[in-house]
Amino acid sequence: MLARSLAVAALAACSGTVVAAAPPEPTGNPSVVTQTPNLVAFWTFGEPAGEPRRSIGTEQPLPLEEVSGPIARVPGGPYSGYAAEFNGKQYLKIPYAETGPLNISGPEAQVSMFAVVRIVDLNQSRTIAGMWSEGKGRHDDSGTRQYSLLMNMPTYGGPRQLVPHISSEGGVTRRADGSAFPWCADYAASVSEVPTEEWCTLGFTYDGDYIRAYVNGVMEPRELNPKKDKRDDRYFTQEGPDGGDRGMNPYYHGRGIFAYDPAKHAETKPDGGSDFTVGARYAVGSFTREATKGRFGGLAVFNRALTDAEMMRLHDSANVPALNAAADEN
């Protein structure tokens, strides 16, 4: 790729003509993503700053709007040859009313997400994407959480790890007797930390029972260690399948995904349903307090739980080693 760009530049210099720079070549194969069944959205982030990012290979384009200014497009990406660079002050969104097939919810709902990213700073909680509005803070039950792929949640045993969340309540998690946690506590946690300063793939699946976290295509099994994982509450240890524990990865949820109903939730959740956001979420009264820093080269959402083999094929489709090699050259 670098050699071709230099050759084009040399030819232009010799001829005296103006030759547009050749676009960077993708490292991966987007057709693997678009041919995976039940795809509802797939963004490759090839659009210039200032333009909506549109889904490819799907029935609806689902344009992602920039928030807080243009988000830079930079060379180097798995599916378009480019990536979107987030600076921790901006994010992308689709308003709730326009989320369409991304509004995955209900007692039988399933969902999977896959992302190709290069995270720069993981010193606090960060967001990949999802429909996840947490409200104004601790003990606030006005949230309209549905599903999200998050990183670094030490409260319940996920420091610097991948922590995909599912919520059936929208607000805080509740035990079987109805008593409440101060936060949403329903998430899986990977064994590995999320890689930083290098390209990787991150993903999760939810099959209606279990949440599974995948780092670089692999779901690393992780058993619950109640004290170490800060999950010694009976909710984690006794309210899982057959009165057992919920595990860590996979993590048992089993109660479906919250569905916002304006008639039912007008008073308790006055801010309405959650937008679909990329690179940030509404948490502790702000969208940008924990906004992500790094590059996004691909993001896909499916309305079913993918298999381990499918998640590995998606990982392979990004050709992460080539992405990282190209980044090292530059």
Describe this structure in words.
The chain has 330 residues and is α+β, with helices and mostly antiparallel strands. The chain contains six helices and 14 strands. It has helices at 2-15, 30-34, 234-237, 262-265, 308-318, 320-329; strands at residues 39-43, 65-67, 72-75, 82-87, 91-94, 111-119, 126-131, 147-153, 158-166, 199-206, 210-215, 251-252, 276-278, 293-302. The strands form two sheets. Strands 1, 3, 4, 6, 10, 11, 12 and 14 form an eight-stranded antiparallel β-sheet that branches. It has a six-stranded antiparallel β-sheet with strand order 2-5-13-7-8-9, with no helix packed on it. A hairpin with a 3-residue loop joins strand 10 (199-206) and strand 11 (210-215). The longest helix has 14 residues, at 2-15. Mean pLDDT is 93; it is low at 1-14.
Give the gist of this structure.
The protein has helices spanning 2-15, 30-34, 234-237, 262-265, 308-318, 320-329; strands at residues 39-43, 65-67, 72-75, 82-87, 91-94, 111-119, 126-131, 147-153, 158-166, 199-206, 210-215, 251-252, 276-278, 293-302. The chain starts with a helix and ends with a helix.
Brief descriptors of the model:
single chain; 330 residues; alpha+beta; 8-stranded antiparallel beta sheet; 6-stranded antiparallel beta sheet; 6 helices; 14 strands; globular
Extended strand count: 14
Q: What distance lies between the first and last C-alpha atoms, to the nearest angstrom?
A: 12 Å
Quick check: average pLDDT?
93
Relative strand content:
15-25%
> Which regions have little confidence, pLDDT < 50, spanning 5+ residues?
1-14
Structural class: alpha+beta
Which H/E pattern describes the elements? HHEEEEEEEEEEEHEHEEHH
Helicity, in percent?
Answer: 10-25%
Shape: globular
What is the helix tally? Answer: 6
Taking the sheet with the most strands, its summary is:
8 strands, antiparallel
Compute the gyration radius: what is it? 20 Å
